[in-house]
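Technical note accompanying the year-one report. For the benefit of new consortium partners, we illustrate the data format agreed upon in the data management plan: each record pairs a sequence with a structure-token string. No post-processing was applied to the example shown here.
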Amino acid sequence: MNKRTRPTIITLDGPAGAGKSSLARLLAQSLALPFLDTGAMFRCLALHVGEKGLEMPGEEMEKALQSLNFTLSGSGEYSTLLCNGKNPGQSIRTEAMGALASRLAALPGVRAFPK
């Protein structure tokens, strides 16, 4: 019987500005693992739905979430998150986008996705 090899997954949690991303990038680089910035995923959602996402009915938000396809390119510090095949670039790195992403991430329908 063949055992499937499970991917190595390491998660870091902590408050904003604590150095999680910096540490995660260094760790990913030293272990030759992809670096997944989940905050960037929430920021992509914020870019996709905008402020109207805060008032979206559950079904509409679920449809918006299903329309986002995330992939990773590269590994370590060279990992790039692609959303629907495109690099979102710096457009998701503004303070306003971060604040909106934080508010969207707290919505129960977003937290529960996928069901």
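Partners are asked to follow this layout when depositing records. DSSP finds five helices and two strands in the chain.
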